[in-house]
Amino acid sequence: MYGKLIPVPRDESLFGDDFHYEYRGTQIKAAPWPDFLLEARYRIQALSGYQFNFVVGNRYLTGKDSIGWHADDFPQIGKRPALAEGFGAAIASLSLGSTRKFKLRHKDSGETIDYQLESGSLLIMLPGCQKDWVHAVPKTARPVGERINWTFRPHVDATGDSDQN
Ligand SMILES: O=C(O)CCC(=O)C(=O)O
Fold first, then answer.
1. CA 20/CA 82 separation, integer angstroms
2. Residue 6 falls within a domain, yes or no?
3. How far is the CA of 81 from the centre of ligand 1 (A)?
4. Per-residue model confidence as pLDDT tens for the chain (165 residues)
5. With b meaning 16 or more CB within 10 Å and e meaning fewer, what string describes 72-99?
6. 43: containing domain
7. Is residue 125 a part of any domain in this protein?
8. What does the alpha-carbon distance between residue 130 and residue 137 come to, in Å, rounded to a whole number?
């Protein structure tokens, strides 16, 4: 993160189209799409009406693995003004494996909403969500097995060489 190696309490992987990415402050090269993720991407695009060119995989081995409060509001995700007011990117989140609690918290009011994300569920964070809300998958003391989550995102070329978004 921002040029430093900081351990995260989960395993992460990045796949995407062939261009330059900047993810959480670091320039990265995404690995090419494996067939199963490409198929999932096309099906989610058809279902949602949004386009994605990048996916982040998070693997939570046990209840000790987690992701803290954050919004995926990096400028590289793009603004897509044609699709919505304000921050116009959608992020689609596909969950597989053990059910985990996913929390949303409104940035101003502090209102929270909890979802139990079951295997096979697809959560679409619509344009505006990253602007107004933060989200997290907290640690749990409940015995839970492995969960894998794929978040499909739009991303602009970090060099500005081409308009990928
Ligand atoms: O695992 C999840 O459901 C959320 C993942 C997430 O918040 C992220 O990749 O930014």
1. 23
2. no
3. 24
4. 556 667 788 999 999 998 777 777 777 788 999 999 999 999 999 999 888 989 999 999 999 999 999 998 876 665 543 344 444 678 999 999 999 999 999 999 999 999 999 999 999 999 888 889 999 999 999 999 999 999 999 877 655 544 444
5. bebebbbbbeebeeebbbbbbbbbbbbb
6. 11-153
7. yes
8. 15
The number of distinct structural domains making up the chain is: 1
| Atom 8 of ligand 1, residue of closest alpha carbon | 151
pTM summary value: 0.86
Looking at the CA of residue 72, tell me the nearest atom of ligand 1.
Answer: 10
Which ligand 1 atom lies nearest to the CA of residue 93?
3
Q: What is the CATH number of the domain that holds 137?
A: 2.60.120.590
Query: Residue 118: inside a domain, yes or no?
Result: yes
Quote the tokens at residue 76: 């590289």
Evaluate whether residue 2 is within a structural domain.
Answer: no
Neighbours of 147 (CB within 10 A): 23
Task: Identify the residues whose C-beta falls under 6 Å from ligand 1.
Answer: 56, 58, 67, 72, 93, 102, 117, 135, 137, 149, 151
Longest Cα separation, the chain: 47
Give distance in angstroms: CA of 83 to centre of ligand 1: 23
